Amino acid sequence: MSSAAAVTIEGVSKSYEVRTGEDVLALDRVDLDIKPGSFVAIVGPSGCGKSTLLSLLAGLTPVSSGRLGIDGDIVVRPHPKAGVVFQSDLLLYWRSILDNILLPIEIKGLDRKAYADRARDLLAQVGLKGFADKFPSELSGGMRQRVAICRALIQEPGLLLMDEPFGALDALTREQMIMDLQTMWIRLRNTVLFITHGIDEAVFLADRVIVMSPRPGRVDLDLAIDIPRPRRWSGIHEDPAFQHYVRQVREMFEAKGVLVAH
Ligand SMILES: Nc1ncnc2c1ncn2[C@@H]1O[C@H](COP(=O)(O)OP(=O)(O)OP(=O)(O)O)[C@@H](O)[C@H]1O
């Protein structure tokens, strides 16, 4: 696979011009260095600029100031090493599951046949062996999101950008997907940037949890998570180390008025 990518975020700000002509500052001078092969989760209140940061890194939106780098390349367009998974699976309903996974290959003008076996392998790895010829409407929400992950992984991205990928799933499916993502990542060891509202999934999955302030988003807390892997979801909520990290994140949210302690 392509090697894990390094990410540098230097003094990045982003403002949007809204209809009234005013500027909305979404991100304010964010600095972050992400080591190759690390799993970083970003948590923050709604509207703090998490999706904006991901969209900037995906090369889908330009920065207002500052610099973003992937393996030393300044990001000005989608980087070949980056794969993206959004909250909604964005599968094309008229294409089979296999054809959806191979879409990025077709867009790049690469040889479909050379990647078809890999697509089937990926499907098997996410528990969807035999689904290649089905259509999105025949799959559940969790299954479709697995397909979206396969589509992001087909080019073996050194950097996987995930924007609340499990946000739309029911609780049980989400739990299964969290564990499966850990298993997949232990195998791949690529760099993952994972955006979520869920403090528990951030602490469970990540090596490092970044807590963002309410808008304009800044880094409020940068927390290294030292819990051995593989981590087991069942029982993790009783693990004192896990509880300690969750408490630190919650206390930061309380200090910022994002959560009110009772
Ligand atoms: N295209 C846009 N045009 C104008 N304003 C935008 C645009 N995209 C985002 N914003 C504004 O920028 C701020 C940050 O939005 P963003 O979607 O990045 O936040 P978020 O942390 O991902 O929120 P959520 O957790 O609710 O998804 C918000 O105030 C939002 O209204």
Automatic annotation (TrEMBL):
<keyword id="KW-0472">Membrane</keyword>
<dbReference type="Pfam" id="PF00005">
    <property type="entry name" value="ABC_tran"/>
</dbReference>
<dbReference type="InterPro" id="IPR050166">
    <property type="entry name" value="ABC_transporter_ATP-bind"/>
</dbReference>
<dbReference type="InterPro" id="IPR003593">
    <property type="entry name" value="AAA+_ATPase"/>
</dbReference>
<keyword id="KW-0813">Transport</keyword>
<dbReference type="GO" id="GO:0005524">
    <property type="term" value="F:ATP binding"/>
</dbReference>
<comment type="similarity">
    <text>Belongs to the ABC transporter superfamily.</text>
</comment>
<dbReference type="InterPro" id="IPR017871">
    <property type="entry name" value="ABC_transporter-like_CS"/>
</dbReference>
<dbReference type="InterPro" id="IPR003439">
    <property type="entry name" value="ABC_transporter-like_ATP-bd"/>
</dbReference>
<dbReference type="InterPro" id="IPR027417">
    <property type="entry name" value="P-loop_NTPase"/>
</dbReference>
<protein>
    <submittedName>
        <fullName>ABC transporter ATP-binding protein</fullName>
    </submittedName>
</protein>
<keyword id="KW-1003">Cell membrane</keyword>
<keyword id="KW-0547">Nucleotide-binding</keyword>
<keyword id="KW-0067">ATP-binding</keyword>
<feature type="domain" description="ABC transporter">
    <location>
        <begin position="7"/>
        <end position="239"/>
    </location>
</feature>
